[in-house]
Amino acid sequence: SRPQKVCLCPFLPVHPLKVSTCLYIIQHPAEESRVLRTVPLLAACLPPDKCKILVGRRFNEDRYPELATVCRNPNTLILYPGAEATNLEEVGVVSSSPSVMIIIDGTWSQAKDIFYKNSLFRLPKQVQLKPSISSQYVIRTQPTNTCLSTLECAAVALSIMEKNKSIQETILHPLQALCSFQLQHGAQVHHSKEHLLKNGLYDKPMPKNKRKLRRMELLVNNIKI
Questions:
Q1: Which of 39, 88, 180, 224 could hold 127 in an S-S bridge, CB 3.0 to 4.6 Å?
Q2: How far is CA 48 from CA 148, 156, 219, in A?
């Protein structure tokens, strides 16, 4: 759906990746209107039955019976960092059945709202990724240097769950092309808020909200938030 000179089709896999893991992307409605969102690229890399996208803020069993069943499956994981989360590399497979992973797509505040206000998402085992890579999604500002886009999270997670490093490289390829095209056409590299604050480059007015100010102080002082 892009102009031919910036078409991303040549950077997608010729055939959808063969994976046993099914992804459920829980997408905040605001993400649908973003021009440079990454979930469409992720969906283009995977078979339709392995990447299911549900858009909304509130999810209950009555309206989403399939999702409720998935959340109660012992093989389902939800990717959301925090004190209760286990590093994905350390999670053992419960059985030989295909695994399911739920990933929330939105800003960090939107993802937090969805996670904590939907009890279904506290049923699966909570996992997180080790902060071993920096985001290549350089055309959008991230809170910290180790925050990743939804596509990057999915790429890393699938490569771990499928025990296949090439999956990560294949899924990241169209994202790298997207960023390259945008930079060639006038976009600027977006450093993380953490980088800008630490280097005195943050040029926006400081928030008046005490909670937001506290979060900025934590970023500057290398304290996990």
A1: 88
A2: 23, 19, 38
When divided into structural domains, the chain yields a total of 2
60: containing domain? 4-184
Contact 79, 151 (CB under 8 A): no
Using alpha carbons, select from 134, 150, 130, 145 the residue that is nearest to residue 86: 130
Predicted model pTM: 0.80
The answer on 116 and 177 residing in a single domain is yes
Q: Mark whether 197 and 132 lie in a shared domain.
A: no
Beta strands in the chain (DSSP E): 22-27, 51-55, 76-79, 86-87, 100-105, 125-128
Tell me: do 32 and 122 sit in the same domain.
Answer: yes
- Asked if residue 180 and residue 205 are part of one domain, the reply reads no
Q: What are phi and psi of 51, to 5 degrees?
A: -145, 95
